[in-house]
Amino acid sequence: MRRIFIAVPLLRKSDRSFPELSFELSKYSSLIKAVEPRYYHLTLKFFGSVEEDLCDRIISSFNGLSADFSPVAAEIKGLGCFPNTADPSVIWAGIRGADRELSVLHRLTEDFASGFGFSPETRPFSPHLTLGRVRRGRRLPLSLRNYIRDNGETFYGKTLISEVVLYESKLKPEGPEYYEIAKIELK
What we know:
The chain is an alpha+beta fold. It has a single domain, classed as Cyclic phosphodiesterase (Cyclic Phosphodiesterase, Chain: A). 24% of the residues lie in helices and 37% in strands. It has helices spanning 19-26, 52-63, 99-114, 142-150; strands at residues 2-9, 32-34, 41-50, 72-82, 90-96, 128-134, 155-161, 163-170, 177-185. The chain has a 5-stranded antiparallel sheet. Strand 8 and strand 9 (177-185) form a beta hairpin. The longest helix is centred in the middle third of the chain and has 16 residues, at 99-114.
C-alpha cells in the first residue's frame, strides 16, 4: 500500500517562509505540529492508502497526461482554521487570486481520480496551504485564536502555480515526508 495524493507545490520558486507567522506559530509548538515549508502544497486530491497495482496504474496514467493550462500567479493571503477557529484541527493560509484556474484543476483532478473508482470530495473546494495541525486533545489558547482571526486578510506573499505533482506520503514519527512520483508542467 502507498499513500498518494495530487497537489500543486507552493513557494518552490520564491521565499518559502513567513518569518513573523512562523515565529508566532513556533510559540505553540507543544500544541501545533507545523508543516515544514519545503512541503507546502495545495492538495487537489488525496487518494489515501492505495494497493500497489492500482497505484502503478494511476502513476502510468498520470504520466500520460498533458496540461493545456498556463502557469498562474496566486497570493498567499489570510489565515483560517478547519473546521472553525473555536475548535480547530488545521491552521491554514488562503490561496487567492487564481480561483477559476484552481477550480478547473480541482475538477480535472477529481475526474481523473473517478476514472479509478475514487469518489469525489463532498466538501467544497477551499484552496489553502496547511501551516499546521493541532495536536490531538489540545485546544488553542485565546491569544492564538485571536491572532488567526486578526490576520484573516493579511498578505503573506505570492507564488506561481506552474506544475501539478503526484506525491507519495510516508508517515514518520517526526511528521510526514512527501516524495514526488510524477509531475505535469503547466505551459
